[in-house]
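Quick check before the chapter quiz. The format below is the same one you will see on the exam, so make sure you can read both the input and the output lines.
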Amino acid sequence: MKTRDRIVLKSLELFNEQGERNVTTNHIAAHMNISTGNLYYHFSNKQEIILAIYELYEGELLERFSPHYHQQENLALLKHYLDSIFTLMWKYRFFYANLPEILQRDSALHQRYMRTQKELSRNLLSILDSFQNMDLVTFTDIQKSQLCVNLHMVAVSWIAYQSSMSLNIEITQKVIYQGMLQMISIIKPFGTSLGKEQMELLEEGIQVMLA
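Here is the expected output.
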């Protein structure tokens, strides 16, 4: 693996474990047993590393929510949707935990993030249409737009919300699974009989992972 790629992956690991605020380029270099000069050859500062991590996140995000996944049926599509959101939330949890501060430091990254989120919202609306076409949910166009916003808000802010509820909370996969249940609770009131049955099966599977 190239040194640049190793720096990106090790930085992601450290940011997730210790919090992005607490990790410097010196920490990253020491963790990798390389000189700071070697690190600066690839990245001028920590913000450039964050941008490189964001590029990985963005690529995975758009791939997981691309339209070709919508050909799945019933439970498979719903499970894929939830798994995708929270798999990425876990993998890039430092980003979700400190999102406003990270974006405020870099206007170019903020603009890129907003473009990505607009595309994600369009894809999410398409997924909700797929749910409705499969007779999993029923809603008006206005309700669909509101549901899209509510799901997006939970996906973006769940980790930050949990962190704010306690100074000592540790973000674990259990917290992520709880977020999945929260997402289901938002969709469930719009479920048809078939949809609610599918969602209850999902809830049972998640509860097993929480036990």
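If your answer matched, good. DSSP finds eleven helices and no strands in the chain.
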